[in-house]
Amino acid sequence: MKKRLFLYTTLIIFAGLLSFFTASIYVTYTNNLSLAKDTVMETAKIYSDLYTPDTNLASFVKAGDNTRITVVALDGTVLADSGVPDLSTLENHLNRPEIQAAANGSPAAYVRHSATLGVDLIYYALKVNIAADGGGNNYIFIRAAIPVAKIDSYLFRSLPLLIFLLLILALLCFLFIRGTVNRIIAKFNSVEQNLRLLSDNSNGEYKSDLNHIGKGYEEIDKITREIGDVALVLQKNFNDLHNEKNKLDYIINNIGDGLFVLDENKSVVLINTAALDIFGVTPDIISKNLNYLCYDKTLSEAVEDCVSSAKSALFELTLNGNIYLITVKRLPDTVLTTIVLSNVTENRENAKRREEFFANASHELKTPLTAIKGFTELTALNNKDESINKYIDSITRETDRMLSLIGDMLKLSELENSTNTKNINSVSVSLAKVVDEVRETESTAINEKSIIFKTSGDCTVQADPGHVYELVKNLVENAVRYNNQGGSVTITIKSHNNSGSLTVSDNGIGISPEEQTRIFERFYRVEKSRSQRNGGTGLGLSIVKHICALYDWKLSLKSKLGVGTEITVFFNCL
Ligand code: ADP
Predict the structure, then answer these.
(1) How far is CA 552 from each of CA 192, 456, 473, 516, 572, rounded to the nearest angstrom?
(2) Per-residue pLDDT at 383 exceeds 70
(3) Coil, helix or strand for 5?
(4) What values do phi and psi take at 392, rounded to 5?
(5) Which residues, judged by CB distance below 6 Å to any ligand atom, belong to the binding site of ligand 1?
(6) pLDDT digits (tens, 9 = 90+) for 198-217
(7) Measured in whole angstroms, how far is the alpha carbon of residue 72 from the centre of its chain?
(8) Separation CA 429–CA 459 (nearest Å)
(9) Bridge pairing between strands 139-147 and 120-129
(10) What is the rounded end-to-end Cα distance, in angstroms, of the chain?
(11) Cβ 431 vs Cβ 458: under 8 Å
(12) Is 98 exposed, middle or buried (0-12, 13-18, 19+ CB in 10 A)?
């Protein structure tokens, strides 16, 4: 830039100087020429005025100093010429332009070459009346001429001085331009150094002082100041970003879950310490493909599927003996996919232990309880003492309740152990038939409460009949149990194409919105005393939820406190 700026400025200024110099010479020359023309015209005028009919032509023309004076007759014959002693050598001058101009009454100066003298001359002629009385047709031409060389000589004399001045001026300009260009470039260099400092600045500290560039050029100073301001803003933003990044890195690397992020080409763009440990890789995995990170086919295929289809997924996988809950999520409005690996081994083991304990305890309790129930019945049969009958009744009731609870607990643990329908004895089951059976079983409670029981529709499902019976029984039991005296229970079975639904609705006590989210939890009861009084265990809806999950059936609950409840199960029917 420096060279170009210097070259262009020098060329422009030099071209300007040269043009000025040429124009000056031209103007001087034309001025001199015009002056010379004036002189020639003046001289011709003077000579015309001096001329009298008795003038001695030879001495008359000689009087001119440096000026050629020619007297020409009206027919063009040269009568006298100060520059040519031998007039016989001169041809007729009538066709000379200055003579022609004078003859035509419009005298004018002409520059042309004199064949006689061999030089360029400025000519001017006047037509003069030489009659003594000034009348008649007695005219001559008086012509004055001065050599052009005389004008040129002035010019040539002053030319060395002009050239000298031009060179001095050019030199001064050159030095001035060089100084200015150097100063401007020095400023730009400083600005550039500062900008480089800003872009090289990797630790977030912008150390340069823009003031040292100095003042002098308002525009550059303005740019410098602006850069200074931008630098400060950038520095602040950079520091903020740096701090945020540090915080984020700290958080990401200290969470227990493994986390990595892939771009659209399945290359790793971010990975935290936990994920590095899980996969046993080093941080240089960044920018490498997913295949370098994870050799597990199931995981890489599932992740690849999500990356290419921009889908999210949630699944469990065993890696190196640990169970991981894997969450794959496409970040909105980006091409990035995050994969989080949560180690749920301990949770799963704890849950398994709990379930095992649940099942074992239920089993262990069932045998002595059955024995107690048997002995109580035996005691009741042989008892003659009326006073202890109420104790026997109480033992029987509580034993029944505990057996029912244990029965539910065993059902639940059995359902929890069945993770898929493969090992289930599935047959075609008519829902209407199951509803009738349940109605039969629950008839005592239905009659006690004078419940109006209505059923409609039918549909056949492929499932374990025991599971279908449990599901319907628990829903009907609740509809009756949490109903009012003289209330109604309606069971509606619908089927359309391959999908069907079973709805159990009642106009009982209803469930508040806050409780609705919790009633499917095991042992959760809105009103414990009412549930217990009516033989509830708090496990009924938990069993319903597990059966639905096993068959992938959907459940929906609509309820309003004091109005009633409606629970619908959606399934595929045959
Ligand atoms: P429970 O054996 O106590 O009935 P469930 O798991 O079957 O246990 O139900 C959980 C709780 O949900 C019940 O205790 C009851 O408070 C509430 N509930 C269930 N069904 C109904 C219903 N149809 N109307 C009102 N409340 C209900």
Answers:
(1) 68, 24, 19, 21, 9
(2) yes
(3) helix
(4) -65, -45
(5) 474, 478-479, 481-482, 506, 508-511, 519, 524-527, 531, 536-542, 565
(6) 666 555 455 555 555 555 66
(7) 96
(8) 8
(9) antiparallel
(10) 85
(11) yes
(12) buried
